[in-house]
Design a protein that fits this description.
heterodimer, A: alpha/beta, six-stranded parallel β-sheet, globular, B: alpha+beta, Alpha-Beta Plaits, five-stranded antiparallel β-sheet, four-stranded antiparallel β-sheet, 9 strands, binds thiamine diphosphate, binds magnesium ion
Chain lengths: 577, 163
């Protein structure tokens, strides 16, 4: 058997997992590991400027490719800087393996230099974690980490490695495990056929069915099956913020996003429906509004890989535990059989339901109220980006109003193209996530839609973009404020704008130029499309487009909380359902 | 209501902290907790009691099952079960109290396991209610120290929790 150092074992193990990128930042505890990295050329290491960004890059890479993202950080501050990104990945069930350096074994527990209990600090925000106790443990921990991160409900896994077990002078036997078996971990591989049949009979009998799908359809590679099922049934479909792209958003059967900032028709249809098929969604509080008032007429079937997600917030009638792709495939086959046997005429029987939905759709809840000569509306900026990119760009976003505008005004035709921090809502996610996507897809158009607040939370990565020549397009919806905070203050605190105002914004164009990138300002509507066209025509440079938008604009519709139901919404300033 | 959850888990460093961390993180309560290795040294058996309604207990057991190191678990209160707790009580015992305490201890099938001029230490086993009743039966002022093991339990009959 081959004899290797712990550092080399780690790198060889990652090669065995077909890792192509590591996003990371060196330091004392990982010096042996970085030396092992230096002595190989299969894996590309991407040197970030802040460890939080490394985790978001790995996250963006994972969301866009479906492969796990890999991160290296040193002990202590390196590890703690990674925490926000690990929590972001955890909340959205993103596969990620984070290797953190740890102080030497004999120093653990002695408050030694750059020591932090990484396994302890990260415990509530990881799917699992390992502390390697000897060099012989590393290969096994890495193979288990990848297995756990990518199977079942995916999530981040931390592997904490003390410095002394990576030492180049201590060689141990290395053989990468061919198979992983964990006796206490058996994610479901298919759904229960009896339960699937129950769900089907409710679905086919429903007069007002709704299909509600979430991020599980994206991460679980179920978009094609979902689309097939929705078309087969003829029912309306809505996606969560995390589920956008799970069904082509320009298709007439799509009623838009649901929830706090969902469309009028999506939220109304949910409220009035008599059956919900929930697929890879988790009845998040940003979707349900007041739990006790949620969808009063609906029976619910719920497909999810994670049994703990089922009936957590809302009790469901038919739980189906299984991978969405597999369950949906089985469901489609069974429904086709039912329909062929002539027992149901689903499509016709939904005519009344569709008429009702078209009525709601007629409200045009996403109409943009722009007065000629006034400032650009943020919604118009997103529409222009959609037009200029022909709807084909990867779009990452930060958190705030711009995120909701992107979700509502850039209809995604495909899964994995919309990348945002829906669960944790992490400002500073957008730029590094876009970098991870651009690394994975160097020839694709990658757009980061951001705000003047969020972009400054990881702006140092403009330097990384320069180093790796990442031609990302950054669209800054500059409203000179923490718009989403300001919106809540307008609506709930009589307009007292406590610290939601961004004073002394930088000159973004000069700033990006200082890093060697290209910057444009747009402050009038007529210039919007031409400048964007120019920006996107520059294929080999990062371009930052600073769009000055109306700083008084709010995101609508907006569900009324607390105590509101799905159908209680503000539709415009001062106008409610 | 009170639930007794019995968990078989990997006997590994960190496994216990994950279980306890889960309860803290998700705002579940822990009333008692006992844990020790089993006859198979790769496994430990953890018994915990918590107060929860049906919906909460469903979530608790599902979340526990999600922990990678949890191999199997059972809610003992779902069926007939045996529960036992061990209690050691150090009592002030002087003069005429000594006979009185001995009598009460006998009624509860306690054993006096240590004796000094001024104190008895009594060992009692039983379910939690019995131990509570004993403490009520002896006058409070004489109790010097109480230590309880927390509840352990098994299902009745042939049902077992094993790999
Ligand atoms: C790290 C972090 N801190 C605070 C918040 C709370 N927060 C949510 S939206 C928002 C304002 C974002 O401002 P900006 O990026 O300019 O976006 P806008 O809403 O103006 O479009 C804030 C502060 C958050 N989501 N993340
Ligand atoms: Mg802003």
């Amino acid at each position: 058997m081959e004899m290797l150092s712990g550092g080399d074992i780690l790198i060889r193990s990652l090669q065995a997992e077909d890792v192509d990128f590591i996003f990371g930042y060196p330091g004392g505890a990982v010096l042996h590991i970085y030396d092992a990295l230096f002595r190989q050329n299969k894996i590309q290491h991407v040197l970030v400027r802040h460890e939080q960004a490394a985790t978001h890059m790995a996250d963006g890479y994972a969301r866009s490719t479906g492969k796990p993202g890999v991160v290296f950080v040193t002990s202590g501050p390196g590890a703690t800087n990674a925490i926000t990104g690990i929590a972001t990945a955890y909340m959205d069930s993103i596969p990620m393996v984070v290797v953190s350096g740890q102080v030497q074994r004999h120093l653990i527990g002695s408050d030694s230099f750059q020591e932090t209990d990484m396994v302890g600090i990260s415990r509530p925000i990881v799917k699992h974690s390992f502390l390697c106790k000897k060099a012989e443990d590393i290969a096994d921990a890495i193979s288990k980490a990848f297995y756990i991160a990518t199977t079942g409900r995916p999530g981040p896994v931390v592997v904490d490695i003390p410095k002394d077990i990576t030492s180049p002078t201590d060689l141990v036997e290395y053989e990468y495990p061919e198979e992983v078996a964990i006796r206490s971990y058996h994610p479901a591989l298919k759904g229960h056929t009896g339960q699937i049949k129950k769900a089907i009979s409710l679905l086919l009998a429903a007069e007002r069915p709704m299909i509600y799908s979430g991020g599980g359809v994206i991460q679980g590679n179920g978009a094609a099956m979902l689309t097939q099922l929705v078309r087969l049934i003829g029912a309306p479909v809505t996606n969560t913020l995390m589920g956008l792209g799970g069904y082509p958003a320009t298709d007439p059967q799509f009623v838009g996003m649901l929830g706090m900032h969902g469309t009028y028709e999506a939220n109304m249809a949910m409220h009035h429906c008599d059956f919900i098929l929930a697929v890879g969604a988790r009845f998040d509080d940003r979707v349900t509004n007041t739990i006790s008032k949620f969808c009063p007429y609906a029976k619910i079937a719920h497909i999810d890989i994670d049994p703990a997600t089922i009936s957590k917030n809302i009790a469901v009638d038919v739980p189906i535990v299984g991978p969405v792709d597999n369950v949906l495939t089985e469901m489609i086959a069974l429904i086709e059989f039912e329909l062929e046997s002539g027992a149901h005429e689903t499509k016709n029987s939904l005519a009344e339901w569709w008429a009702q939905i078209e009525g709601w759709r007629g409200q045009d809840s996403l109409k943009i109220n722009h007065v000629a000569g006034e400032e650009i509306k943020p919604q118009q900026a997103i529409e222009a980006v959609y037009k200029v990119t022909a709807g084909k760009s990867y779009v990452t976003s930060d958190v705030g109003q711009h995120q909701m505008f992107a979700a509502l005004y850039y209809p995604f035709a495909e899964p994995r193209k919309w990348i945002n921090s829906g669960g944790l809502g992490t400002m500073g996610f957008g730029l590094p996530a876009a970098m991870g996507v651009q690394m994975a897809f160097p020839d694709e158009v990658v757009t980061c839609i951001t705000g003047d607040g969020s972009i400054q939370m990881n702006i140092q990565e403009l330097s990384t973009c320069a180093q790796y020549e990442l031609p990302i397009k950054i669209i800054n919806l500059n409203n000179r404020s923490l718009g989403m905070v300001k919106q809540w203050q307008d609506m709930q605190y009589e307009g007292r704008h406590s610290h939601s105002y961004m004073e002394s914004l930088p000159d973004f164009v000069k700033l990006v130029e200082a890093y060697g990138h290209v910057g444009f300002v747009v402050d009038e509507l007529d210039a919007l499309v031409p400048v964007l066209e120019e920006a996107y025509s520059i294929r080999d440079r990062l371009v930052f487009v600073d769009i000055r938008v109306d700083h008084n604009e709010h995101v609508y519709p907006m569900q009324i909380a607390p105590n509101g139901s799905m159908r209680d919404m503000w539709l415009r300033k001062g106008v409610r359902t | 209501m009170k639930r007794i959850i019995s968990v078989l888990m990997e006997n590994e460093a960190g496994a216990l902290s994950r279980v306890i961390g889960l309860f803290a993180q998700r705002n579940y309560n822990i009333e008692t907790l006992t844990v020790a290795p089993t006859e198979d040294i790769t496994l430990s058996r953890l018994t915990l009691t918590t107060f929860a309604n049906d919906k909460q207990i469903e979530q608790i057991t599902k979340q526990l099952n999600k922990l990678i190191e949890v191999v199997k678990l059972v809610d003992l209160t779902d069926g007939e079960h045996i529960e036992r707790e061990l209690m050691l009580v150090k009592l002030k015992a002087t003069g005429s109290q000594r006979a009185e305490i001995k009598r009460t201890s006998d009624i509860f099938r306690g054993q006096i396991v240590d004796v000094t001029h001024n104190a008895y230490t009594i060992q009692l086993t039983g379910n939690a209610e019995k131990l509570d009743a004993f403490l009520r039966a002896i006058s409070e002022s004489t109790v010097l120290e109480v230590v309880r093991s927390g509840i352990s339990g098994l299902s009745r009959g042939e049902k077992i929790l094993a790999l």
